[in-house]
Specification:
The complex is a heterodimer.
Chain A (H helix, E strand, L loop, with lengths): L1 H11 L2 H19 L5 H8 L8 H18 L1 H7 L10 H10 L3 H35 L3 H17 L5 H15 L2 E2 L6 E2 L13 H20 L13 H10 L1 H15 L6 H15 L12 H24 L5 H12 L13 H24 L1 H7 L4 H20 L2 H19 L5 H24 L7 H20 L13
Antiparallel strand pairs in A: 1-2
Helix pairs in contact in A: 1-16, 2-3, 2-4, 2-16, 3-4, 3-10, 3-15, 4-7, 4-14, 4-15, 4-16, 5-6, 5-7, 6-7, 6-14, 7-11, 7-12, 7-14, 7-16, 8-9, 8-20, 8-21, 9-20, 10-18, 10-19, 12-13, 12-14, 13-14, 14-16, 15-20, 18-19
Chain B lengths: L4 H21 L4 H39 L14 H24 L1 H15 L5 H22 L7 H5 L8
Helix pairs in contact in B: 1-2, 3-4, 4-5
The chains are: A mainly alpha, B mainly alpha.
């Protein structure tokens, strides 16, 4: 693995690949800074552009973007009291009071340092987990992979905002939408209603953009929120950096927690944020000023939410089970690049998997350098009003949607799905399970067909299948017992 | 989580969708039928349970509300916007749909400039200088992106009527 890691680094350090990584990092920084967007929106915008790319370049672009949104999302959280993404909600608790006390730069410096350490720990953990999980993953056959897909979907559905039933249904809606078009096992077209556009199915980028990005655009316009015109960066940026390293054990602890929680499908950025914030507040022994501008209230969640990205890649890469909207789109992107998440990521595509680990690390370093160096300029981005931002994003999104199949069908489908996505958002129906179900539909159906054709009905009696089935039942029972979620236990969506 | 009438209607629509999908999948070949039929049947059953549960919760909430007598409407909240919100929603949806309509008539470049100028002036109320700068910059970006991605947009109504304009459109 170590030798493979060094080989992967050498491949990644090619100037053209580093260029794509830098571009992805830049996009991720912009997405994180702008309130109301998030990793899923950024991933959806980039997805159409990876068609036909070299897999290393595509992975560098996509992972580079996803790795750093949680670094730059600190800007609006600290400066404006508005979360840049779901993973920076808890940062507001102490980051915004610090800004109000004239210590915004100190808060940002501490947050960036914590993000860097968290991101690197997430990458290192991913590397070691991959090595340890390899023998286990190679034992998995199509029956186990099918059941794991169902398990991932059930967890995401149950942990969604709102009721477990609506979350599960949203997942099934995604599975249904994913079966539109050509059937994998036989030459038949399903649910196309005679429309040539649907013969290849609904493009993932169009679904993701419509489901997540367009509803956010609409709500940004409707909110017309007045944003402060001040974005003063008073205080000492490097003072904040020093303080973060003075609390290094808190950073490490929070990062490990973030990584571990990230490995559980359905646990989103906001959950990780709040859990680590709460634990930091409750376990602090000295001078507890959490909620009033305690720097530890910035360090803990920021370290955790960056480390989470490494954790979420474990089920995504190893089992093909995305744990969030962002990783669902990433999974789709990897399929577009010709990569099949699952056991092959540790065998024939091990070099790309290890390149992913390096991308996570390098992107986090680049992001922190950029944020520290360009803090005043980047801070101004978060002041852009929705009324100015939305039309620009609409142009980009229409182009991104059109890139999928290069037809008017993309545009029509984009707006139609956008309408459904907005309605779902307004009616408290979770959307991430729908996207995850859509991404899992094709592989799940393939695994099912392979299982049936190879094992007949006997695959249902395999011990591993029964164990995973019992887990699914336990997850569903827990979900129905939990009832509708009013607590911030929610799957990371577009934020 | 507020259980409103629109939500119940949406729950019902989902049940119908799954039921229709399950029924339609009976016409597919055997190997093509299995997955959507299974998803449709399970979705219908779970959907009915979800609809029933939501209806029950709403009934309980209505009963609590009428007992308290505080007149609080269960319909409050973002899930049931009032007339003013709906008209603002319609206003912005119209703006968002204007852009593809303009593309269809005028082509991508003209549509981008026209849409941005119109929106940034009429709604965002930016000064002319900023509006024009942003619109032109965005048009340049769009052109550059189209070149890099080798994107060809379908011909517009205007380019069909005035073919000489296709050089820019």
């Amino acid at each position: 693995m170590l030798e493979g890691g060094l080989d992967a680094l050498q491949i990644l350090l090619d100037p053209s690949r580093m260029g794509w990584l830098a571009l992805g990092t830049f996009v991720g920084l912009c997405i994180g800074v702008l309130p109301g967007l998030g990793g899923t929106v950024g991933m959806s915008i980039l997805l159409p552009f990876v068609y036909g790319m070299d897999p290393f370049n595509g992975v560098a672009l996509l992972i580079g973007m996803a790795a750093v949104t949680h670094t730059s999302d600190t800007f609006p959280s600290v400066l404006l009291g508005v979360p840049g993404s779901a993973g920076s909600q808890a940062t507001i608790m102490d980051g915004y009071p610090l800004a109000q006390q004239g210590q915004a730069a100190r808060a940002l410096g501490a947050a960036f340092s914590a993000s860097l350490v968290g991101g690197l720990i997430g990458a290192v953990t991913l590397f070691f987990v991959l090595g340890m999980a390899r023998p286990l993953v190679l034992l998995l056959g199509s029956p186990e992979l099918f059941m794991l897909a169902l398990l991932g979907l059930s967890m995401v559905g149950v942990l969604s905002k709102g009721s477990a039933l609506s979350g599960t249904l949203a997942g099934f809606l995604g599975l249904l939408l994913g079966s539109v078009g050509a059937a994998p096992a036989t030459p038949e077209y399903r649910f196309t209603f005679g429309a040539l556009y649907l013969y290849d199915g609904i493009p993932l980028a169009v679904l993701a953009l419509g489901l997540f990005a367009l509803p956010e655009m609409i709500d940004l316009l409707l909110s017309r929120s007045k944003i402060s015109e001040r974005a003063a960066l008073s205080g000492s940026l490097w003072g904040g950096v020093r303080e973060a390293f003075q609390h290094r054990w808190l950073m490490l602890r929070s990062a490990m927690m973030g990584c571990a929680l990230g490995m559980v499908p359905g646990v989103g950025g906001s959950v990780v944020d709040w859990i680590t914030y709460g634990i930091a507040a409750q376990t602090s022994r000295t001078d507890n000023r959490f909620g009033e501008g305690d720097i530890r209230g910035v360090i803990a969640p920021e370290s955790a939410n960056n480390a989470k990205e490494g954790g979420t890649l474990v089920p995504t890469l190893l089992f093909g089970i995305p744990g969030s909207g962002t990783t669902a789109v990433l999974l789709g992107g990897m399929m577009l690049l010709g990569l099949q998440p699952g056991p092959t990521m540790l065998t024939t595509n091990l070099d790309i998997t290890l390149a992913t680990v390096w991308t996570l690390s390098i992107a986090n370093v680049l992001a922190v350098i950029a944020c520290l160096a360009l803090a005043p300029a980047v801070a101004r981005l978060s002041l852009i009003r929705g009324q100015v931002l939305v039309p620009l994003l609409l142009v980009i999104m229409v182009m991104a949607a059109y890139q999928s199949s290069r037809g008017w069908g993309d545009i029509v489908t984009f707006f139609a799905i956008g309408a459904v996505g907005w309605i779902m958002k307004r009616l408290d129906w979770p959307r991430a399970p729908m996207l995850i179900g859509f991404v899992l539909a094709l592989p799940a159906e393939r695994y099912l067909h392979i299982s049936i054709s190879r094992y007949g009905a006997d695959w249902l009696m395999r011990p591993s299948v029964l164990v995973i089935g019992a887990l699914i039942a336990a997850v569903m029972a827990f979900g129905f017992k939990k009832g509708p979620s009013a607590a911030p236990v929610q799957v990371e969506t577009q934020r | 989580m507020t259980i409103t009438r629109p939500r119940l209607f949406f729950d019902f629509a989902v049940v119908v969708l799954f039921a229709v999908a399950a029924w339609s999948s009976l016409d597919f070949a055997r190997l093509a039928r299995l997955f959507p039929l299974t998803v449709g049947v399970i979705g219908t059953l779970v959907g009915v349970a979800n609809l029933g549960l939501d209806a029950y919760r709403r009934k309980l909430k209505l009963a609590d509300t009428s007992e308290e007598g505080d007149g609080e409407s269960i319909e409050e909240g973002a899930a049931d916007p009032g007339p003013a919100s709906l008209s603002r929603l319609g206003y912005y949806v119209a703006w968002l749909l204007l852009y593809p309509a303009l593309i269809w008539v005028f082509g991508l470049n003209w549509a981008t400039v026209a849409f941005l100028v119109a929106f940034l002036r009429a709604d965002a109320r930016l000064p002319w200088r900023s509006t024009l700068a942003i619109s032109i910059a965005m048009s340049v970006f769009v052109n550059a992106a189209m070149q890099v991605l080798e994107l060809q947009w379908p011909t517009s109504v205007l380019s069909d009527v005035m073919p000489w304009s296709t050089g820019f459109l």
